Amino acid sequence: MRVQGAFPPAKRSPKKALHSFKKQLLWLTILLPIFWISYREVNNYLTKPEAIFVLGGATGRENFAAEFARQHPELPVWVSGGSNPEYTYGVFSDAGINLKQLHINREAVDTVTNFTTLVDELKAKGIHSVYLITSDYHMRRAKAIGEIVFGSRGIYIKPISVRSDQATEPWEKAVRDGARAILWVTTGYNGSTLKQHFHFR
To answer: What pTM did the predictor assign?
Structure first.
């Protein structure tokens, strides 16, 4: 005997189910990066830096970094790219920095490789957080790359901008190099190394 008013639950059509799934996927795509960035920002704030990471390319950055290192004598310093080693050693020596703390790397050819050429060395040294020093106009791009490349190895960054008179770089550069950083994390290649890879194949 059927009870009046009792009906089996209506089934959603495949079209509605697909629409609902796409909507959930869209929200997930939006929210995951927000959660990831928030998580990184909180940990960036809470984790004490264990090294100073300087992006070469302007002598002012090295001058600033030498003074900054003088105020943090317990921290080792990595300089990626930049001036010739003699100048860099001179700047840090004049600031009274123990040169055993100074590590100069000249493998990088651009901002992306500033990070990719040293991230595994820093990780191997047990470094989990660094002060990132670069020019103010360059920081947006550097931070985007650093969050991806260093973040892939669990290394946090605290940005320290060096004041300049230059306008901030266009955001397109940050997007472009952010994409290259993601490419490096997922494939091991970035713009320059990928070009070399296919050239020799």
So the answer is: 0.75
